[in-house]
Each structure stands twice: as structure tokens, then as C-alpha cells.
Amino acid sequence: MCGIIARVGYTDAVNELMVGLKNLEYRGYDSAGIAVTDGTQIDVCKTHGEIGALRSALKARSLTGAVGIGHTRWSTHGPPTDANAHPHTDDTGRVCVVHNGIINNHEALRTELQAGGHTFTSETDTEVVPNLIAAGLREGRSPEDAFRDAIERLEGSYAIAALIEGSNTVYATRNGSPLVLGLGEETSFLASDVPAFLEFTDRVIYLQDDDVAIVRPEGFELTALDGTPVDRDIRTVEWDANDTSKAGYSHFMRKEIDEQPTSFRQTIEGRTADGTVELESLPPGEFADTREVVFVACGTSLHAAMYGARLFHRRGIRATAIRASEFAHDPVPLDDRSLVIAVTQSGETADTLGSLRVANETDARTLAVTNVVGSTAAREADDAIFIRAGPEIGVAATKTFSSQVGVLALLAERIAVDTDADPGNPAVLETLAQLPEHIQAVVDSPATAQLAERYRHADAYFFVGRGVGYPVACEGALKFKEITYDHAEGFAAGELKHGPLALVTPNTVVIALFTGRNDHLTLHNVEEARSRGASVIGIGPESSTDVQAAVDEYLSVPSVHPELAGILINIHLQLLAYHAANLRNRAIDKPRNLAKSVTVE
Ligand code: F6R
């Protein structure tokens, strides 16, 4: 959802800015641009299209400067044109800004600035920011004061980095959008996310809302918006720069699917000792007062939450998974025995953070289940559990879904024991520990690619499942539609006959999921679709011979505890979507209109 980068040092900044933008491209790829300064004037180069287009545009220019800012855009205000690409300058070119987020009061500010004689060249909300700073400079304020005063006027969410003519300083701040300061030997960075600069430094400070960073080649200052100094910890990021490269793969998505045996092992490592669940800072008994669990999440994370809710039900715990975009504005009643769990890979999704903030205002306890240490969700929730999946760059979430479900399975066991709802199920913990090798078997299976080819010309793909198979069906359909652009829907298997069956024709493919629990019921639903001419691909345990006999095709997974079979089945669905998208030559890592980490509501 837009990526910003700034680089401050003594040598030329262009190369490192371009590396940073390439590493942030998953956050948006509608347009890109950079601006650099040598301490006197500011030079800008920007264009619509992906980073490659910017690289070509730069060949025709000689941009040099040791300090710079850059942006890769996911359009919110105005189409992806050259004029709307960031960086944006004020109408004199003295102030230059990159921004991620949305300025809600931009129209009022634009009207006011236009009345004061400022002219605008783009349709973006961002352009008011450099003009506000420039207005302050014109009134005689220092660059720092002009920056702070301009930020005070903004309403909305933003991470902003600015250059001001005549100095080699980057001024930056955030409110509701992520911003991380990276500290190298002689070079500093600011970026929306750590992978932007991870190959240059792993020492970081996660900025908090209203922090202002003033970064110069010789050092940096951190203050609150009112100028009071603030102290933030410097942390060392555990991720390796190789984790954020394609490592020979043609797509991040495929690499991340293949990484799952390892990433899942990392998720559960040290957490299932001696038949009990160890959750770092959350000792046994910690959840004894919990009476109900409410999950809030979006997209793939919502599907993991729906899966989690079903696991909680199996342990006798009341649980509901609610779309964060709904909960944030229509919350359910909560009390001091409610536990609200925000499930979010990035920890920065605006809808999920909105829900978390609503819950934080009640007596409920809040917990973030996230992949990103230092993320806003991790900081704002009462507690955080990290899924430890490693960086995920492909826009389509894959390995993080498996790891989220893994953590939620652990939590279900722990909360069941803490609340005496259930003695816990050692078979589930045993299966979790064995899952990495079973995941490997699914990842290695060539059968999915063959089916993607065989059924590539269908009109629609319907994914059906029940129990934990239902959220997996929704997830399979989401993955399929987002990267193939074909029509795909996920249904609870029993719901087919209540409406969707009207859409089933001989050119429909039904992908039916069998976890080993209530499969006979799903088979009835499959028969309803087959008798209307649909082809049925079943996915389920290798031991289910009756199911295999009742479908057109069958993809098997190792027979494991039914509550966890969905994790294995989902990996076939990730591969099905991947191969289908590859056959259609889709931009798998950067599907149209989408971006990872959606930081606007
Ligand atoms: C789909 C996908 C999105 C995200 C959603 C929430 O493949 O990645 O649906 O799952 O935007 O993102 P996080 O988990 O970062 O809150």
C-alpha cells in the first residue's frame, strides 16, 4: 500500500534508493519515483508504471545526490499517471515529499492553499503536504518548524519523508502508517518496511505515531511532534537479506510456498514441549479469565482466524471471527472476559488496526498474532505472539496462513487448558510437531500442476468445504481469483444447495475439500454438483478411498488429525492457484489492483 524510502549518507544515493524501491514493490506498483539532493537543489524523476519504467527514465537523466527519497505507489487519489506519481513538490520545487496513507482533510487544505496562491499539478491528496511546508518557509519558519507545523495540520494516516532545498536532511514522521529507521555505518534509511534496506543494515528503530525523525549524514534526532526528545530502542532484525530475495525462483509466491516446511517448523519450534504449549511471555494460566474470543482480521488472515475459531470451538471455547472492516465500525459487545485477537501478517492493516483500537477502548484484553516484530499491531495490543514465518514478499499470502493457523492451534490448546474448557488434545500437538514433513510431501507433489493444466478453461471454480475445510475453501478461492483473475468462490459445502448451485454448469469446476471429518456430508454436496455436469476435484487424506471413488480427480494429503488437515489441503490450493496463474501468464507476485499491507480503510 505504497512504499516509501529515504536514504541519507555521504555517497550517491540513487542506487540504494532504487534497491529499496525494488524491495518495496510488493506494496504498490502503479508508479514510482525518486528525488535526490546534493544539499542545494532537489532533482526529481518519476513515472507511471513499475520500477523498471523508472529505471529506464533515469537512464535519460543524470540524477546525483547523497540524500534522497523514493516512492512506489498504489493509487488511492487519482489514476496512475506521471503527474500523480510521487515524489510531489510544492509549486516552486523547493520542498519534495513522499507519502504513504491518506490525508483526509486534503480538500480543505488544497482550497486554503489555492486561496493563498499555490498551484497544484496532480490529483493526489499528498500534494498539499509540500505546499503546506513551503507556505511555512515563506512565512519565515525554519525548515524543521515548517515541517512540524505542516504535519500538525494533517488529518488522516501518513508516513511522510520530505526534502527541503538547501540542506542534506530528511524530515520524516508517521501517523497510522508504518515507518522504520535503518541505521548503517555511514548511511541511514527510512522506509515503510525493513526489507527495503535489509541488505544494507539490520539495525532498526520502529518509529511510533507522531515521532519526528530528522536524519542527516552525521546522525539523527528523534522527537515528538512538539519537539520533545523521544527515546526508542534500537533493535537488530533477525531476518536475513537472503530471505527477501527470490533465490533463483521466478516468483516470490512459489518460493514462499516451498519454504513452508521450514517456516512452519519455525512457528512451532519450542512451543509444544512435553505435551504443553509454551508461548514465551504468556505463561500457563495467563488466559484463565477468558470467556470468549473474538478474532478480527482481513483477507487471508480472516480465513486463518475463521479456521482458528473452529479449532477453539472443538476445545469448547466460544469464538467468533469477524471481518475487521466491519468490526471497526460495528463492534460486538465486549467485556473484561473477552479476548480480542487481531490476526495480521503485516501488523499494519488499517482495518485490523481500527478494530484493535476499538477493542483497546473497552475492558477486553487484546492480543496480536502477527509476523512482524515492531509492527503497530504488536505494539498496540496488550500482548503479541509472533508467527515467525519469515518475510513474505509475494502479494498473495501463503506461508503466513499456515503459520497463523499453527499459532491459533497452539492458542486453542493453551486457552482450553487455562480456562478448564477442555483438558487439551495431545494428538493435535503431536500432529503440529510432525506437520513440517507432511507439508514437504504436499509441496513436492507434481499432481497439482497437471490438474491446473487439465481444467484451465473452466468458466468458474467453486471451492467447497465444511468445518475447518470451509475457511480453507474461502482461502483457496481468494488465492485463485487474486492471481488468475478467473471467477472463483468459496462456499460452505452444505450451502451449495441453498443458492450457488444455480451457477453450476458442465463448465464449472468444483474443488471439494475433505478433512476426514463429516466427509460423507460433503460427498452428498459434491454429488449435487456432479449431477449438474460439474467436474469435481477432491482434495483430502490419502486414506479416504470412498471419497477418491466419488470424484473426477483426487489430490491426496498425508492422513493427519482432521483439525489440522486443512493446512495441508490449503498448500495444494496455493499450488493450484500458482500453476493456473502461471499458465495464464499473470503477474503472480504483483496481481493487478492489489498490494500487500493495506494501510488505508
Ligand atoms: C491475500 C492477502 C490479503 C491479506 C489482507 C490482510 O493473499 O494477502 O488478503 O491477507 O490484506 O493482511 P494482513 O495479514 O497483513 O493484515
Description:
It is a single chain. This protein has 601 residues and is α/β, with parallel strands linked by helices. It folds into three domains: 3-243, Aminohydrolase, N-terminal nucleophile (Ntn) domain (Glutamine Phosphoribosylpyrophosphate, subunit 1, domain 1); 246-440, Rossmann fold (3-Layer(aba) Sandwich), CATH 3.40.50.10490; 445-601, 3-Layer(aba) Sandwich (Rossmann fold), CATH 3.40.50. It has 18 helices and 24 strands. Helix 13 (426-444) packs parallel to helix 18 (562-583). Fructose -6-phosphate binds next to helix 8 and helix 15. Fructose -6-phosphate (F6R) binds next to helix 8 and helix 15.
What's the arrangement of secondary structure elements?
Blueprint: E1 3-8, H1 14-24, E2 31-37, E3 42-48, H2 51-59, E4 67-73, E5 88-89, E6 95-103, H3 106-115, H4 128-138, H5 143-152, E7 156-164, E8 170-175, E9 180-183, E10 188-191, E11 203-206, E12 211-216, E13 219-224, E14 235-236, H6 252-258, H7 260-268, E15 292-297, H8 299-314, E16 318-323, H9 324-327, E17 338-344, H10 350-360, E18 365-370, H11 376-380, E19 383-386, H12 399-418, H13 426-444, H14 447-454, E20 460-465, H15 469-484, E21 487-492, E22 508-513, H16 519-530, E23 535-541, H17 545-550, E24 553-557, H18 562-583
Parallel strand pairs: 15-16, 15-17, 17-18, 18-19, 20-21, 20-22, 22-23, 23-24
Antiparallel strand pairs: 1-4, 1-10, 2-3, 2-4, 5-6, 6-7, 7-8, 8-12, 9-10, 9-11, 11-14, 12-13
The structure holds fructose -6-phosphate (F6R).
